[in-house]
Amino acid sequence: MLWRWIKKAPPADTYLQHKLDEHATAKMDFMAQQQRQMDQTTAADQLYDRHVQQKQQAEQHRYEKYQRYFADSGMHQRNN
């Protein structure tokens, strides 16, 4: 019984090569997945940074607009 199983088994070097190939493939897949995840994180960070920058620019623009409005209308003199 054992002898039949041994005769059907692939040679040891073929088996080891197969396992090494499996391991290398799994490692390459894992590294590719990590790289994709880092790329997605970087893209998300850039999108958020752009959003924050646009928000700050809008806030600055609004501040300058109100500053001009109050300067033109003389409102700042009435409050003092």
Protein architecture, described:
The protein has 80 residues and is mostly helical. The chain is 92% helix and 0% strand. It is rod-shaped. The termini are far apart. The mean pLDDT is 84.
Task: Set out the fold topology.
Elements: H1 2-8, H2 12-73, H3 75-79
Main attributes?
80 residues; mainly alpha; 3 helices; 92% helix; 0% strand
Basic shape: rod-shaped
Strand content: under 5%
Largest sheet: none
Radius of gyration: 34 Å
Uncertain runs: none
Distance between the termini: 104 Å
Q: How many β-strands, per DSSP?
A: 0
On the 0 to 100 scale, the average pLDDT is 84
Going by helix content, strand content and strand pairing, the class is mainly alpha
The percent of residues in helical segments reads over 70%
Q: Report the total helices.
A: 3
> Which sequence of SSEs, written as H and E, runs from N to C?
HHH
Summarize the structure.
The protein has 80 residues and is mainly α.
